[in-house]
């Protein structure tokens, strides 16, 4: 691999990382809070509620109990 | 360069205007925090003078910004929701909102840190270094937090419960600004000395080392574009150090272009010292080098767009020196720091040349100066007769005809 190609790889990686850092800063404010809430609810449904054969709504009762 | 200036200027003006219209400051829903603060207590609506949430249990709650709005941290007020009983004792405290740089204040936001305010009386000092723990690298922010909690509580205790409280003026004992000023003046003096004599070029190594130790490790306040973003969003600081950093950097840009990058920036200094290690550097064409150097302007423009449209300065927080010298950042930010430092083994001043937003900003603002020709050992690996925006004024190649044009 030539030195120019190695440089191009490194700079591309750095550019992608920089873009991701900025994107993450913005996404954290607008999307990640919602996404985190959804994933928490979904995981709780999969792990606890669905095993009891309950719908999501009925499962709220069990969540309070637990 | 003229095209870059016009484009970045347009992005700044337009995004500031559009952001002002589209993203007004949202008021925090204090009721949510109130339920979290004291779930078992029913509070009334906020009313009276001072503005309070009152309850039958004798506990009152208040937004510190309604009571003492003049207290500011590094980037604006630290707004608190405080619950207090009728004897003037703090029973609960939450941070409602602040604009401090997240990297520095992560511990300040934790319930573990805030719990030390619980049980404090308005007769207690409520002072960092006295009965409240300080946090290194977040001194201004935690001072503002403690002063806000203490002063607002005393005002409420006095006006709502008639408790006689003594307020004493505290002397600000921080000499951080003095350290910065001395480092800056020493570096500027050395810069002008090396313009006259090449024998003094070693002075630059000393000021770069001082930059790492004083500005990076001790003060942890490298100049950042977040300073400029906060100023543009009309969120000036209460810190003397903040004003000194802004004023000295502006002065240095007028006098000597990217002097800050070459003589004071702790990350730039670290990069240059790494680049001096005996590893052969990768060769590349000037065309390719020039093309990638534009990336820093693109990212600076994008960050500015995100910050001004969203009116949130932390959207533009991608600077490696902020991560490194605050010792705080996520895995992406730390990977970028590691890559930017390691790359210096093969590419001189990798971050400064291709990605640094401060390099972009100071490069855009510096005046054209003749006398810098570049040479084989240029720390920025500049081509002969480089653009002055790419020159960090190390003075190695300075030919002695430095009139500005």
Can you give me a brief rundown of this structure?
The complex is a heterodimer of chains A (66) and B (405). Chain A is 86% helix and 0% strand.
Architecture overview:
The complex is a heterodimer of chains A (66) and B (405). Chain A contains two helices and no strands. Chain A has 66 residues and is mainly alpha-helical. The termini of chain A are far apart. Chain B folds into two domains: 23-161, no CATH class; 175-390, no CATH class. Chain B has helices at 2-22, 30-37, 64-67, 102-105, 111-114, 139-161, 176-196, 203-218, 225-232, 240-256, 259-263, 266-275, 286-293, 295-310, 320-326, 331-342, 350-354, 357-365, and strands at residues 60-63, 79-84, 90-97. Chain A binds chain B through residues 3-4, 6-8, 10-11, 13-15, 17-22, 24-26, 29, and chain B through 282-285, 288, 292, 295, 299, 302-303, 306, 310, 312, 314-318, 330, 332-333, 335-336, 339-340, 343, 346-347, 350, 354-355.
Tally the beta strands of chain B.
Answer: 3
The oligomerization state is heterodimer
Q: Rg of chain B, please? A: 24 Å
| Class per helix and strand makeup of chain B | mainly alpha
Low-confidence stretches of chain A: none
Share of helix of chain A, binned: over 70%
Largest sheet of chain A: none
The backbone outline of chain A, from C-alpha atoms, is elongated
Largest sheet of chain B, described in full? 3 strands, antiparallel
Produce the secondary structure layout:
The complex is a heterodimer of chains A (66) and B (405).
Chain A: H1 3-49, H2 56-65
Chain B: H1 2-22, H2 30-37, E1 60-63, H3 64-67, E2 79-84, E3 90-97, H4 102-105, H5 111-114, H6 139-161, H7 176-196, H8 203-218, H9 225-232, H10 240-256, H11 259-263, H12 266-275, H13 286-293, H14 295-310, H15 320-326, H16 331-342, H17 350-354, H18 357-365
Antiparallel strand pairs in B: 1-2, 2-3
Helix pairs in contact in B: 1-14, 7-8, 7-10, 8-12, 14-18, 15-16
